[in-house]
Amino acid sequence: MKISGVDIRPGNILEYEGGLWRAAKIQHTQPGKGGAYMQVEMKNLIDGRKTNVRFRSAETVERVRLDTKDFQYLFADGDMLTFMDKETYEQISLPKDLLGDAVAFLQDGMDVVMELYEEKPISVQLPEQVEAEIVEADAVVKGQTASSSYKPAILDNGVRVMVPPHITAGTRIIVDVNTQEYVKRAE
Question: Looking at residues 114-126, what average pLDDT do you find?
Answer without folding.
Answer: 81
